[in-house]
Automatic annotation (TrEMBL):
Residues 12-198 form the YrdC-like domain. Keywords: ATP-binding, Cytoplasm, Nucleotide-binding, Nucleotidyltransferase, Transferase, tRNA processing. This is Threonylcarbamoyl-AMP synthase. GO terms for cellular component: cytoplasm. The keyword Transcription does not apply. It comes from Micromonospora eburnea. It is an enzyme of class 2 (transferase).
Amino acid sequence: MSSGSPRVLPAASGIAEAAAVLRTGGLVAFPTETVYGLGANALDARAAARIFEAKARPSFDPLITHLADAADLPGLVGAVPPAVAALVDRFWPGPLTLIVDRPAAIPPIVTSGLPTMAVRVPDEPSARALIAAAGVPVAAPSANRFGQLSPTRAEHVVAGLGDAVEVVLDGGPTRCGIESTIVDARGERPVVLRLGALPVEALVEAVGPVDVRPGSSGQPVAPGTLAAHYAPRTPLRLGAAEPAPGDGGRRGFLAFRERPAGAWAAVEVLSPEGDLTAAAARLFDALHRLDAAGVTEIVVEPVPEVGVGRAINDRLRRAAATWH
Ligand code: TXA
Ligand code: MG
């Protein structure tokens, strides 16, 4: 592929052009309320294959299919189990991905050969307008190269994927900033396969007890749950704000609410108010900035292990695991 830049269009006015690219088998990056997705026509195996190529994503890592409206689900997959339907009614559109049986219309490459399919309706008007205008379900993983930081701004997509993507819809920074929560609700008790923007507490309030198995290595696999993932290029470790003794290096610090004392070359504070939702929204952007700051190491402070804080800590642990 030639080197160059993708066409970056405003999300408000670029929908028709982007939808045409999807309909003809091309790739479009678009904002959702969680992170930017790299979309292709989910009914077209060749288009889906281009996603794996553009991301350098292993073929065993299945994609999430995105719909414009919850009412489109039965038309694609037929009857859904009552427990899945209850979650659809309660949380769609929103940052909840559900596991259903893969319908025949979806080619196996989309689900990496799994008999199941991950599906959600994003809570971002331009994303839903794009999918509706394309007139097809849209397979979309996060619009970053495999294993790297997730994109929460159009600039992150352009820097990470370049012209591997034809069109980038720019809708500004994403609201949640962290990926959707993935739940398999087909069995006795719902199982959380990936912690995400919808807090476990909200699920429990709606449907009662759930099992949380984000690190499960059993089938089906959710590779956003691979031990090493979501990583910056700069070595990253979890730690406290004390400068290491005798440390003369240029180090960066990712703080939850308070600026650390000491000689840090770069500091990012996620939320001075201590608001975990705000912290999640800034997480990947702050990591992208620290990664670009020319530091030799990024030290990150874990956040409180509650609500969306659990998903933030999950991403930080996986980012740190790359550097062990
Ligand atoms: O918020 C999100 O979910 C974003 C936006 C773009 O919607 N998408 C996203 O996609 O995070 P991706 O590919 O980065 O992560 C999708 C995760 C992967 O870990 C994948 O393994 C899992 O979903 N997944 C997909 N299909 C699955 C299935 N049938 N069973 C279990 N996990 C599945
Ligand atoms: Mg991803």
